[in-house]
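Look at a sample.

——
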Amino acid sequence: MGAFPIRIPKVSLAIHEATLLGHIVEEGGKVNEGDPLFRIETEKVETEVASPASGVVHWTAAVDETYPVGTQIGVIDTGD
């Protein structure tokens, strides 16, 4: 099976970390590429992050925790 990593994105040049506010697609839920997947907060600005792939979502990071940009916070099982 293929697993596509879900990572904290770099939403601007000045941002080096973000707080994971919540999952839009819950553990074990199905998502399509481009659909909203999770929400982050950087310097009091909330951002919805789109899914990088289609498949089944598995989260590995805790909500309300702050992570450096690039940290893997879950995977999407693409079924490949």
